[in-house]
C-alpha cells in the first residue's frame, strides 16, 4: 500500500484508497444474506419493498451520515452501492418512510448476526502495539448510548439515575471486547441500562480465544467471571477490586507474589485447608480456586498517588515481566478510545440515536458497531503496511474521507435485463474476495484472513 500523509492528526490513508467499498468489503453481501436467512427475513422486491441486504447497507449508511435525514442518506450512497452491486441503478432512492418500513421488516437481529459473522481480530503479527510476546492484546469494557425519549424506548431500556434525578434520555448499555492494536470491536452485548456490565460480560468472557491476553478493569471482577475467562485457556490480566483478599502464598524473584482467588462460597475451615494445599504446590480445582500472580505498582501522577493491584494467570516472571504486564494494562485506555470513536466521532458528541422503537435501536447499535469495525479494519491494514502503530492514524480524518468518497447517486440504468454490477462485485451472494479497488481488497484480506503468528 502506498504511503499516506502525516498531519496533525497522524497518518491517513490516501483518499483514493477509501470509499463506501470499505464498508462493503468488510461486511460482505453473502454474510448479510446468511444472517437474514438465519433470522427468517425473506428477500422480496414486490411493491417497491427493499431487499434485506439493501436495507442492511442503508442502515449502516445512516450511521456513516448520522447528521442527515434517512432519505438524504439514501440519495447520497446509491451510486456507491450500485458500483459494488448492492444497488440497482434502475431503482428509485427510497423515501424516509420507506426506509423506516424496510428497517422494521429487517428487524433487530439481522445486523447482530451479521456482526457475529464479520467481526474478528484484524491485526497481523506485524501490527505494532497489538501483541505482548505471543498473546494478542484484548480488552473488555462498557459504554452507554442515549436514545430518543419515546415510551417504547423508556420501557425497554430505562433511564439512568432514579425518579428524583434521572437522565434526560433512555440509555442502552453496550459491553464490548476490543482488539487493542486495531481498536476494532470483535464481540459485544447490547442491553438495557439496568443490566450490569458484569452480567453482560459473562457471555463474552466464556467465548474468548486461548491466544489472547484479556485485560479488564476491577468493575468486571467476580470469581465466576474470572473462572469463566480462565477456563478458555486465555491469559488474563485484570485489576483487582480493593476489597479482594489476596493472601501471599509465595514471593517471586521479581517482587511479585503468588496468591489464590477462592470461591467466596468457601469460608472458614474449607478456605484455609484449600490455601494450605495450594502452598504445598497442589493445583486447586478451578471450580474452587485459581492461582494468580499479583503485581502491585504506584501511579504517582494521580491525586495523592494510587496503588494499582493486578491479578494475572501469567504466573511465571519469565513468561512476561511485571513491567510488561503493567504497561499492557495501562494501555487499556485504548478500549476507551474505541468507545469514544463510536460515541463521539462516528455518532457525534451529545447525539441521541435515530431510532424511536426498541427493535430499531438494537438494529442501529449493531450497524454502528459494523461501521466502526470496517473503518478500523482499514486503518489497521494501512498502518501495518506502513509499519506504524494504528494509533497514529486519525479515525476522524479517515471517517471524513470515507464520507466524502461514499457519495453519489446512481447516474444511469443498466442494460435491459441486467443489474448494474461494474467489474467483479464483492457483494455477490457467494463472493469471498473484494476486487474493485486495492484498498477494499486489502481491507477484506486484513479482516478475514487468519492472523499470522507473532514472533518474539
Structural write-up:
- With 456 residues, the protein is α+β, with helices and mostly antiparallel strands.
- It is built from 15 helices and 13 strands.
- The chain has helices spanning 21-26, 29-38, 52-64, 70-83, 96-106, 110-118, 151-157, 197-205, 223-230, 268-279, 322-330, 333-346, 358-386, 395-405, 438-448, and strands spanning 5-7, 10-12, 131-132, 135-146, 159-161, 166-179, 185-192, 212-216, 235-239, 250-251, 257-262, 289-299, 306-312.
- The strands form two sheets. Strands 3, 4, 5, 6, 7, 8, 9, 10, 11, 12 and 13 form an eleven-stranded mixed β-sheet that branches. Strands 1-2 form a two-stranded antiparallel ribbon.
- α3 (52-64) packs across α4 and α3 (52-64) packs across α13.
- The two termini are 25 Å apart.
Q: Tally of extended strands? A: 13
Number of alpha- plus pi-helical segments: 15
For the biggest sheet, the summary is:
11 strands, mixed
- Shape designation: elongated
Q: Strand percentage, roughly?
A: 15-25%
Q: Output mean pLDDT.
A: 83
Uncertain segments are 1-18, 409-456
Rounded radius of gyration (Å)? 24 Å
Structural class: alpha+beta
C-alpha end-to-end distance:
25 Å
User: How do the SSEs run, as a string of H and E?
Assistant: EEHHHHHHEEHEEEHEHEEEHEEHHHHH
Percent of residues in helices comes to 25-40%
